[in-house]
Amino acid sequence: MPSIPHLIMAALFCLGSLILGLVLLIDILSFCSSSGACVRGRICAFFKFTALVVGSGCLVAGNLFYATFYLKTWSFMLSMSGCLTAVYAILFYIATLRFIKRK
């Protein structure tokens, strides 16, 4: 029988992966469709931004939860959170570049 920390970590990892997968699916569908997007304008952008923040937050929280309960090394936990934050910032920057967006 898994303990409560195991269930919390699994829920955070699964929820974060599911949300980020949903955003990826929406982006793929909007890129491949002839109209350009399923919902145009600020509503879709707000949903994708909110979903990216919540999904990446769930993944980082699950990762930090794992590092706190099982690794018990602060240096690893801080370096992991710093690397993940940098990766998400870079991916968000690449996603908002003007020459990548379709006209």
Automatic annotation (TrEMBL):
The chain crosses the membrane at residues 6-31, 43-67, 73-95. Keywords: Membrane, Transmembrane, Transmembrane helix. It comes from the Eukaryota. This is MARVEL domain-containing protein. It comes from Dibothriocephalus latus.
